Structures are given as C-alpha cells and as structure tokens.
Amino acid sequence: MSSQEIRLTSTVGGFTADGKLHTLSVWFILALRLMMGIAFLWSGADKLLSGGFNAAGYLQNAPPANGSPAADLFVAMGGTEWFVAFVNVAVPWGEVLIGLGLIVGLLARLAAFWGAFLMLLFYLGNWNVAHGYINGDFAYMLVFLSVAAFGAGRILGLDAAVEQYEAGGQPLIERYPWMRYLLG
Prior knowledge:
- The chain has eight helices and four strands; from the N terminus they run ββαααααααββα.
- The chain has a two-stranded antiparallel ribbon with strand order 1-2. The protein has a two-stranded antiparallel sheet with strand order 3-4.
- A hairpin with a 2-residue loop joins β1 and β2 (15-22).
- The chain is mostly helical.
- α1 crosses α6, α2 (56-65) packs antiparallel against α3 (71-78) and α4 crosses α5 (108-125).
C-alpha cells in the first residue's frame, strides 16, 4: 500500500486555510459518497414502492408543531395543491436520482447539491434544537457539500470517464469548463 500527504491551501474572503490530506482519505470520501447514495436511493425507493407518499400533511403540520422558523412557508406550500402534487413526485424521484448519481459517481456534484438542498429543507421542516442547532439533517447536508467539494464522482465513478471523453479533439471538461460544476 502506498500513501502520502498532500498539502491543501484555500483562501476565501481573505482567510486562508492550510493543511495536509492523507491520500488514504480518498477511500473515506468514496465511502461518504456511497453512504449518502445508498441512503437516498433507499429512502426514495421506499416512498415509491409504498405508493402512499403524500407530503401535504407533513408540510402543513410538522413544521408548526416543532416551532420551525420556516413554518409559515411550509404551511403555504402544503396548502398549494399544485405544489404538493409536484413535491409528491419530486421528493421520491429526486431521492432515487440523487442516490443513483452518487452510487455510480455520475453528475455527482449536481446530485450532491440537490441532496444538500433537500437536507436543508428537511432541517428546517424537522426543526429540533433541543440539543443544539446541529442535528442529523444538518450533518447530512454538510456531508453532501463535502462530497461535492471533494469531487467524489471522480473516485471510482463515471464522472472521471465523462470528463475525459473526447469532444472535438479535446477532453469534454476542457471543451466545456462549466461542466466542472456538474461533474466531479
């Protein structure tokens, strides 16, 4: 087994973070991607296969009951028939597609972004700060953002192959640099 440390440096808003990342970390990044992919695929498939998923009751009742600061928004969403119909399709299918994207490492950054967005909504909807502001929904949101930041789709994933696919005589990612926001 071969491993080494790689130096990472990033400056954001005038603040610099500097550290070393052990190359064995790649396996943990892969594990995070797969864990979140399996969790979301399972959750979405369960909703689809049960056939009874309906978000209206949750949207109208759970956030006000738990004191969510976004309760009024959730109640409004739950009272809008077309929006509930959209959510009833978007949530289970979104979870399945996010899960599949992460498992195979295809469009992993895009999948992780939408996973983080869903977790933010779940965090606000499932509001519970009895033990502080950090809970499982918040932690999962940060895992999704980490998966995106690390470009985890390049680790034994299809994103690595898609990025190198030849388009007009050059790798796809070089020909269309904006794709870096979706792949990786």
